[in-house]
Specification:
The chain has about 55 residues and is α+β, with helices and mostly antiparallel strands. Helix content is about 25%, strand content about 20%. α1 links the parallel β1 and β2. The longest helix is centred in the middle third of the chain and has 10 residues.
Length: about 55
């Protein structure tokens, strides 16, 4: 079954490696993978200042 996948990554995340997350996302067999790296954001994207950019 193919499903769309969305990765929202904080570019300055200190908990989860952005590089490893990107590698994992790119390794998925799904053709419908969207990756959005939000530079200047950390791990809790919806709890940070500027979270409006995440929800847009």
């Amino acid at each position: 079954m193919a499903v769309p996948v969305l990765f929202l990554l904080g570019g300055d995340d200190r908990i989860v490696s952005t590089e490893r997350s990107l590698a994992f996302a790119r390794s998925l067999p799904s053709e419908d993978v969207t990756i959005d790296v939000l530079e200047g954001h950390f791990h809790e994207l919806l709890q940070e200042r500027g979270r409006g950019a995440v929800m847009a």
